[in-house]
Amino acid sequence: MSEAKVLTPVQTPETGGRQTPQPCAMVIFGASGDLTERKLVPALYYLSRAKLLPDGFSVIGCAKTQYNNDSFRAKMQEGVKKYLNVSSSDNPILDAFTRDIHYIADDFGDPAAYGQLKDLLDKLDRERGTGGNRLFYLATPPSFFPIIVNHLGAVGLAQPKELGKNWTHIVIEKPFGRDLDSARELNRIVTSVFKEDQIYRIDHYLGKETVQNLLVFRFGNGIFEPFWNRRYIDHVQITVAEEIGVENRGAYYEEAGLVRDMIQNHVLSLLSLIAMEPPAIFNATAVRDEKSKVMRAVRPIDLDHLAEAAVRGQYVEGWCNGERMPAYRSEPKVSPQSTTETFAALKLYIDNWRWADVPFYVRSGKRLPKRVSEINIRFRPAPHLLFKGTSTTEIRGNHLSIHIQPNEGMSLRFNAKIPATTMQIRPVTMEFRYEDAFGHAVPTTAYETLLLDCMVGDSMLFTRADFVDLAWELITPLLDRWQEDGRKGMSFYEAGTWGPPEADAFIDRDGRKWQEL
Question: Which domain holds residue 348?
Fold first, then answer.
């Protein structure tokens, strides 16, 4: 299968009935960081090129690095050219786009910088017609979240200038806390300054087209929902694999680890969309209500039988794409005695009527053979083998694969007779690919959709406070236990493999296998 083409701003999808945002200004804290250059500004340029941004839209970057307007604009132009593969013919459009980008040098703790920010926002209201509408994006390390929030409140930027006439929204990047207590404390601080309906806790996985399509696939088709339950589904597998190691994020990863970085947010969000009940209506409140119900029904991880419920691993030296890769403990800013997990596999159960006794196997890791995110629904086998005594000795079960990245789409495997004079059966696959079906690749990041949703006030694809709380309730006891155990129970795997042997034994004990990816 060929990978999807890189989407340039020229290849724009139909806008359909999307609401156009009101004129506004976006403030990015941490604007000199990797996220802004790789994702946020390229996504904004994509939207601008597709004429999806409002007139007067302006960006203000805030960070410690001592840029001025011109040097910051030049850096953002380089990022757009690099990560969107735009051609030289786009230079005039890119120049026009970056003219509306401004920069303020700020260590996030200087009250004077927030006064300068307020003055610049007021100036943009007058000169660019941004109407007092503000979107604040926190793309900083989590330790700065409370500092920025409190300063925005102190200078009067947390609430709309004129109630009912304009809006103020704040986007908070993951991780939202590092355990249950810290998440609750952060939420207390943020909600003391901003109202809940102003807060957008972002998980970029929820902006991916295939993830959004889960709702349409399940609830927009009459043939799938009737068998979406324990009677027909044997088990579910969710895999989020990364080929890269920790790169230059060793210090962060030592504090976070795989479970905090991937499973507590991305993977549990995917699980909730797969398992949720149909919402009564299609709006943010109803959809997020159903997602939270799933999390309330997830059975606590059995710490007394931990080997049957979870596996943690860490990569050692190995080969990836013909190159020798170092062990995690040899990465920069990583302790030589580190017990931080770079791989984890969990078996979860959802104790409700629909999913009772159906295991959900989730796994995620660094330095795996390839970058892939996929959900596999494995159906129960046919209850009676009709074809005994024929050339067919085994009929494999059906399964549905939902490909989130890199080749966005779905595939359904079922059994068919091989053309021959004897009865021989083998599995065949029907495939749907976004690029093939709709004539263009999906957007290069998930941020295009999410940024627009923030501007129009649609919070459906963002994580609500109760979901964050419930996810940490599930995960924190496991993390605490692993911290107590130290090296005990830690498994190791070579870089470039699909995780430790214990992860295979973990699912083999149940008579199942991980899906080949």
Answer: 207-508
